[in-house]
Amino acid sequence: MRRNVTKAKLERLMQELASRARSKGKVYFTGGATALLLGAREQTIDLDVKFAPEPLGVFEAIGRLKNELDINVELAAPDDFIAVTDDWPEKSVLIKAIGPLEFYHFDLRAQALSKIERGHQQDLKDASFFVKHGEITREEFWTYFLAVKPKLIRYPAIDADGLERKVKAFLE
User: Residue 1 has what pLDDT?
Assistant: First the structure.
């Protein structure tokens, strides 16, 4: 079993990925990684990442770094589980550029919606943190949900009306 990830381990992973990447690319963090870097948490169980475009050598590096840093790295992002708007890359927040890599927080609106849909206590705390700390506003989040709602038909496991009730409760 791997140990929990701290901000220091995440920052080391970023440095090491950048030093081992053989081409330019973008790394999008989501979930606990975003919560760590924004200060919502002190640790997370694993790091969820998405690459777009995928830098050469990154998967080889992750394979080694998972063992070197004793961490779990998952290839996962909100768009794997829930509808997102087409502007998610532009709405993703730049963390920093290191060498050939640019590191981002995956669109925080999408992350919040995914967390609310899942409904775990830690997820709801993270989504609340985004709003309380001004990372997203209630108005922009509601507008985002309304834009996503028609796309939810492609996700049969998600009850769109039920999710709307969860979003309204969250925003109250």
Answer: 54
